Hints:
about 350 residues; 3-stranded antiparallel β-sheet; about 25% helix
Amino acid sequence: MNFPARWWHRLDDGRIQCDLCPRHCQLREGQRAFCFVRQVEADALVLTTYGRSTGFCVDPIEKKPLAHFLPGTPVLSFGTAGCNLGCRFCQNWDISKSREVERLSAEATPEAIARAAAASGCRSVAFTYNDPVIWAEYAIDTAIACRERGVKSVAVTAGYMGSEARADFYRHMDAANVDLKAFTEQFYKKLCFAALAPVLETLEYVHRETDCWLEVTTLLIPGQNDTDDEIERLSAWFADRLGCDVPLHFTAFHPDYKLNDRSPTPAATLRRARDIARRHGLRYVYTGNVHGAEGDTTFCPGCGAAVIERDWYRLIGWNLRAGRCIECAHPVAGIFEDRPGSWGPRRQPVRIST
């Protein structure tokens, strides 16, 4: 259903400007924004995908990826359609680039989602698959309903958001994984049709101004954003502005969508990036989309012991007590419980009745 949108104002010439993200789309009656899901209707901005999804599924929280937020627990995941970026390498392009709103066959109110999450034993709900920024009203309402049932909310996002909407959105999020797609404006302009600066602003805002647990992912694409120089600069900025306790995930690219002329990212590139970031003092650096015990494991920053050992999305070792290393009692940054979850790598579709 169409739902009244927030974060917009009317221009002197009668057009409506969307203030949700830095694109500031300026629209006349019937026109849609770049994201395709925000439209002017009856002289007001509406969200066309509120309450509608491409489907619901229980995933491991590690798949988001979140390594320091309730490890081992199940998360109810869902998304809608559209996106406010135009990434040529999008690996969920069938959803994020969809212009067929009719594909959103699953319907659910925020309250129904919260009930389903609690009933299925999920500790959290993830707004994912496509960017929840463009359906922020639906995500916020769902987060409010979840919080009333003791279920936490997770945003998986590119962080391309305006300041007012950003503050409203993250007030309701318990954790977020933000994609830092590269560390050059040229990459964002050429391959994402967007800009880097607003994403950096989002990262600093979430880290400094909110209680939302933050992790960051950078997909390394051969020949595009994988040079030592760029990774050095990204890591230096990260350590200076976000500190050394925010987890950073370097993940492997696989050819998809409009970037099929590139080879998959070699595992050696991810290991090199991890080494660079660790040299800059980052304590929790992971490698994803490849199999490797070193890049999956959480190490104690005090004594170097393995405190959380993983095999893909399965936990195989747990050496934390009250968020501290069992060996030396050094604190490990994150949101942990005394006992980890045991969901493992399962992916379980869910039907939600409204």
